[in-house]
Each structure stands twice: as C-alpha cells, then as structure tokens.
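Action item from last week, closing it out:
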Amino acid sequence: MKTILVDAAETFVVDRSIYEPIYDLLQAYPNRKIILTNANDEQMIEFGLTNMPYEIFTLKHNPDKTDPVYFKTMLAQFGLNADDVVYFEHSSDAVKSAKSVGIIAHHYDAKKKDIPALKAFLDTNL
C-alpha cells in the first residue's frame, strides 16, 4: 500500500489550522500519511505545524523541497522507494523536484483548492 506524502503549509495547514476538506479526504484512505515541510523549529510553531495527526518530515531548509536531495533523504529515512509513495504539493518547483527522483506527484493549486482533482489523483495513483 502506497504512502501518501502531503505538503504542509498552504495545503494541509492553512492559516495555522488543518484544512478540513483535505484532512477529510485523507481520512478516507487507510494509507500511511507523512506531512512534508521545509520548516525549521521556529517555523513549525509559526505555521501551526505542531500536533499534526500524521508524521512530519523536515530537513529544516537543508536542503529545501526544491532540491531532489530532500526527497532522496526522506525516502531513505522512511525506508521507502519512489514507487512506494504519491505526493501532492502546492509548489510547482517542489513537484518537479519530486518527479525528478521518480515520485508520482500532483500540483495542488492552493488558490483553487480543487479537492475533486486531488481525489482523482489519489484514486488513480494509489
């Protein structure tokens, strides 16, 4: 069963709170979920990323998600391969970075908040 990788700020957490439509969608899947962020310790508090319902992974900007090393490190830390995961993210550069290491990734438009498109992505790729 694939692991769902979830972008943190502006996707899963909006205005320091869990964005309920995405949380509700994710709860419909029995898959493991991991929240990915670039946040350092101060930003974890600032962005409201403490006390999340899922595991959180960060490299504290060393490097950021726009660097493929971030995803290679994350996969290694969790003992996963690129084909063990799917990922959705609001940053198109981070999506490109994830795809460059073989991760199936979806650009989630944080302004449109297109939950049906996100559900279709998950349903197709899980």
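Closing note: The chain has a mean pLDDT of 97.
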